[in-house]
């Protein structure tokens, strides 16, 4: 592995893509959350473009999509995102208005909150990042 920091990296972080049953619906939720616009759409995929080259989000239709069952390991989450916020209470309230749900299990609610997007993917909001 090269430690030369003067050269440009070969790769850049571009996006995270979520599997789901309804790409259009889930993209609306995350578009509202992050203020992102649709950059590409088809029947089976929606991509929200990041502003000024920032990373975006993709949403891919999966015919047999099964949402994670966090914290029950029966259908494990494969990954989740951390969303930085200034005010946990205000952010949680807004995300619930947008369609998120709040599971009963909250490991450290004073530091972060676990929410589920409309397709069941867990994500956290936190003031720590």
UniProtKB/TrEMBL annotation:
Matching InterPro entries: Glyas_Bleomycin-R_OHBP_Dase (IPR029068), Glyoxalase_6 (IPR041581), VOC_core (IPR037523)
PANTHER family the record matches: CONSERVED PROTEIN, HYPOTHETICAL FUSION PROTEIN
VOC domain span: 12-128
Pfam families, sorted: Glyoxalase_6
Superkingdom as given in the UniProt entry: Bacteria
CDD domains noted in UniProt: VOC
Official protein name in the record: Glyoxalase
